[in-house]
Amino acid sequence: MSMKEWLKEANPIPYDETEEYKRFNDVFGWIDVSIMIFSPYILLLIYGENIEQVTSYIRDNFSLFQDRVEFLKTYDNYSANSYSATILTSLLFMPIMLTIRVVGYWKTVVAKRRCKGLNSKTPFFLLCFTTLMLWVAEIAFLEVPQNFDPRWPGNTRWFFWPLYPLVGGGAALFINANISSFLVVILKLVFLRRGHYE
What we know:
By secondary structure, this protein is mostly helical. The protein has helices at residues 3-10, 19-47, 51-61, 63-75, 77-110, 122-142, 164-191. α2 runs antiparallel to α7.
């Protein structure tokens, strides 16, 4: 069995679980990616330097993000603002996109009684996926480089404008995918027992 086949079998929420769900993903997937990636850029374009107030608020009220904000402000104020815009849009849109995805799954799979069953590979898949998600979230939103030289940014250049909203939005998408996998597992554990399976 190839890695691709193994992942498809282990994944609790296959992209093409039903034809309707595949069509939903074909449309919603692009909307989700576009909103999560481009909304920080749009926010910065519209509000520009006014995002500074959001940056100060995040620094002063959320100790979790404080070190990253302080680090970015030391080198580049606009990068600190892009970080804040990404945090703000992620917190705003992640719950909305997650809700749409779960409702879409419900309508195109569960309500039609077409759930594919879980298997013994699924817990291992979720463990690996969650470990990777936590690592991505820590790096994308919390990590502060210990040895940084602005003359030689190397791989740390993605911490800064204009790359960071792309990276942060991508990380938010990945986190949402992980959360939706867990929610689907819960749905399947409840509804597979009631005959909602293919």
